Amino acid sequence: MTPDFLPRLRAEWFGNIRADVLAGLVVALALIPEAIAFSIIAGVDPKIGLYASFSIAVITAFAGGRPAMISAATAATAVLMGSLVRDHGLDYLLAATVLAGIIQVGCGLLKLGSVMRFVSKSVMTGFVNALAILIFLAQVPELIGVTWVTYVMVAGGLFIIYSFPRLTKAVPSPLICIIVLTAISLATGADLRTVGDMGELPSTLPEFLIPNVPFTFETFLIILPYSAGVAAVGLLESLMTAAIVDDLTDTGSDKNRECIGQGIANFATGFIGGMAGCAMIGQSMINVKSGGRGRLSTFCAGSFLLFMIVVLGEWVAVIPMAALVAIMIMVSVGTFSWSSIKTLSTHPRSSSIVMLATVVTVVATHNLAIGVGIGVLLSGLFFAWKIAQIFRVTSSLSDDGHHRTYVVEGQLFFASADTFTAAFDFKEAVERITIDVSHAHIWDISSVASLDMVVLKFRREGATVDIVGLNEASETIVDKLAIHDKPGALERLMGH
Question: CA nearest 434: which of 418, 461, 413, 458?
Fold first, then answer.
């Protein structure tokens, strides 16, 4: 326990009480229809998603590494569970949720949260823009095949959300939107789709249960692929969301603690009949934009959710979906990085391609992991290409014409290996060759193989070859992998 533990604990929990409580209330109301929808995606009863959202939010409030971030049941994990439920039943989903939690805790203990540093800014921007588009597209079904009243209510809700803060910011405008539109709906009896139409709300508290599956290696092999997928996608989305909340609030977070916190939450959720979940960018944005900054907001979101569905279920059921659609449209508009459109022509072309590829892939597949994976892969390829261009080999001939010195500058690795080899004139009749790599670094087996090839070709032509200027790391890899000084190397080259 460090000296700043208690002050930090006080700040994270009680530094913003009123705003955190109100923000948590808004998030709880927005969570209900989404949790029901995600349950339907996974092919389970709505209470599975609702119980999961309560459990994951409350546990990550204590165990997570990012205050003010909302974690609950999500579409990203739900879509991975559908086939498991269809083929093996609900209990296997619960068992897979428990195993996913164990995997995530292991990732946190192995410090895998630090892999976020390999995700470039372009990928982050693409991720944010793709999620903004997906959030908006998720609202479209609520705007198709409905009466004109729905459109009026959504427009009115957006007007309240954007105009009310000009009067006062004491109460989050999304909460006012829900209250006003619900009152109008009840007073007019308008034909509007409500939260109750999404599915039946549970009326009892969740109970502890052990998944009824055979405790065998065969069961483990059945659930492992699903658990691994859920763990990977869940951590990826959680860590990306944490990074976004970091930027929005100008504060830091503990990514490895977040991995552990997500794992503990999923592990426990499987034992109360809930499905796996992770951080939610949309709900986290609602929380932050409603004033939530501390762990109390996340705790209140989960607690209010359970209270409302169990105690106030009849009232919650009459909330018009138009109010929640308006809130999610606000989140979508606020999430999208509009400046990224303006900078498409000014940013490096490679960065723009990475951002657009991430957006297109995520939107097309609805799979965050694939989109981010494509973005990271492209970022790596573009980076390697750029580094390979910052490479050159120059040479000078001695006054007597018998000794040529080649000076290598830059990073010698697989992408620059061909350029390195092509820079040498093997047919030149000189007695001695010096390869000066004091301004270069040798990285991999491809570069060592190219060095071997150059040295052996010169020796085949009768020249003496010296390699000078190897730094410690380059010397280590050359000593370990190079063959040009080993017996028979020249014969093997000539035979090849």
Answer: 458
Q: Identify the helix (H) or strand (E) that includes residue 251.
A: none
Q: CA 276, CA 98: separation in Å to the nearest integer?
A: 8
Whether this model's pTM surpasses 0.70 = yes
Q: Measure CA 30 to chain center.
A: 22
Q: What is the CA radius of gyration of the chain?
A: 29
> In Å, how far from its chain's centre is CA 183?
38
Token look-up 């022509």 returns 345
Residue in this structure with the two tokens 């799979």, named with its chain if needed: 367
pLDDT at 495 over 60: no
Buried b (16+ CB within 10 A) or exposed e, 191-200: ebbbbbebbe
Q: Tens digits of per-residue pLDDT, 439-488?
A: 999 999 999 989 988 988 888 888 898 999 999 999 999 888 888 777 77
* Averaged pLDDT, 325-335: 82
Residue pair 129/354 in contact (Cβ under 8 Å)? The answer is no
Q: How many angstroms separate the Cα of 488 from the Cα of each of 431, 471, 475, 485, 491?
A: 21, 27, 21, 9, 5
CA distance 34 to 283: 10
DSSP-derived letter for residue 229 is H
Contact yes or no for 44/240 (Cβ under 8 A): no
